[in-house]
Amino acid sequence: MNKIYTLINEKTNGSYKDVRFPYVAISAVNAVVSVVCTDSDFERVCAGERELNDLISTECGFHVPVKLDIRKSEPTAAGLRETVSTFTKKFGFVASVANDVSATVVPECAVTLKMHSGMIALAKDDFIPRLEEHLKNNYVCPVAVRIETVEFKEQASQEAQKDIIYKLSRLSPVYGSVDAQEALSAACANRNIEEACVCGVLTMPTEFLSKGGGGKRSREYEKFILYDGENTLQCRFYPREKCIAGELVNKRVCVTGSSILERDRTDEAVLTVRAIAECDADGLSVVPQVLEPALYANVAPKPYEEYIQSSIFESSESIPESLRGTFVVFDFETTGLSVKFDKPTEIGAVKIVDGVITETFSTLIDPQRPIPDIVAQKTGITDEMVKGKPLIEEVLPDFYKFTYGCALIGHNIAFDFAFLLKFGNRFGYPFGDRRTYDTMGLAPRAIKGIEALSLGKVTDALGIINDSAHRALSDATATAKAFIAMQKRICSAGV
Predict the structure, then answer these.
(1) H helices, E strands: number in the chain
(2) Over the stretch 105-122, which tens digit does the pLDDT of each residue have?
(3) pLDDT digits 0-9 by tens, 331-382
(4) What global pTM score does this model have?
(5) How far apart are CA 474 and CA 477, in angstroms?
(6) Active site (annotated) includes residue 134
(7) pLDDT digits (tens, 9 = 90+) for 390-417
(8) Cα-based distances in Å from 227 to 175, 246, 286, 428, 487
(9) Where are the beta strands (DSSP E) in 192-343?
(10) Is the distance from CB of 208 to CB of 216 less than 8 angstroms?
(11) Which one is catalytic: 63, 116, 411, 470?
């Protein structure tokens, strides 16, 4: 049972053991606590509303007035189906079963979900216990959860399952030897392949320096993305001499190497590149650029105001050449980690002009799907907060204007840039021609001996405060400060 139920019943010796507290909605005005009970208990609970209100306010320590939403909890088959379906949609790997939930209330309350054996193996230790607990918190009477095993059937047609193959021409070697007449698309290479030949448009070339440590020597390498339409493939490249992928930004290339699915991810791989060639490919085209929008429509930038730490970044010294120009540091919060299945819930960005932060750009985004509980707990962004906010297609024109002609920066930019590329290409605002920088890649060069490269570890090492970690604008601002500080360190050290 949830914390409110436990606290209240410990304090009252079980007076409210047949009452449930499904959720709390907290705002700046009040905390609305949902209270459900049986028909027979409804009058008693309503009569004791003031006592219950005082108990919840005292025991739970809310800093705003508490308001109770008391209602009867008599389950119906339709209500059970809706409750379970809504909860299930928050879990990506079982979301496909949400629309096929059956429920009964006679002779017992029970819900049945149909899953194949592989899904059951994933769900039994996490999703199913959480669903059972969710039902305990929503209904006074016991609700049984039953799982029906079904045979897995591939939904895609045989035609859709076939690999997309590009016919190649005009192969111009750039690094190593590529001798091929055809190649897989970026989408089809997102799996384990020992010897892969992949074609796509190259974007996000970003230089890295490995951490080294122990007996290992630090080593320069590059990350980049291959895209075909909305689909992306992460690539890693270890050149023997200078990094060269930056010369190929927004060009069609063919690469060879091995792709390996990322740990704990079932639909995204990283390809370690051995050779690169520029090429032509039938059916693969570069997304054309569009003009800068004349006006901001839904989200306008605001002047940047620094309330703390300004002295860290104020300096009379001349700025390094690497900070001259205009950059935009951006960060997404999303419904999950899958570029294929998830959507942004927030974007935050700041503009740097010649080493000085000048503007901010920020908005919540309605993903038009439930935000998983585990994500909401991490970011603080809930379904109620994003409801009615602009859609990603309404935000992109304004963000395109805000970033027009600017290089892009992120911390682990490969994650955020893949979302930006996917939805940008979908709605006609391409970002594939941008120069990119990754503060994760700069950190080993700028911070001697750093081991962990999370944003928190990097900002801690630089003495930068990030008061609202895992909120997009705060993370983007902290990343911008880290970028400025690290570029100055690298310049002064002559690295």
Answers:
(1) 15, 20
(2) 878 889 898 887 767 877
(3) 999 999 889 889 999 999 999 999 999 999 999 999 988 898 889 999 999 9
(4) 0.68
(5) 5
(6) no
(7) 999 999 999 999 999 999 999 999 999 9
(8) 20, 15, 9, 15, 29
(9) 193-209, 220-228, 231-237, 252-261, 269-281, 302-303, 326-334
(10) no
(11) 470
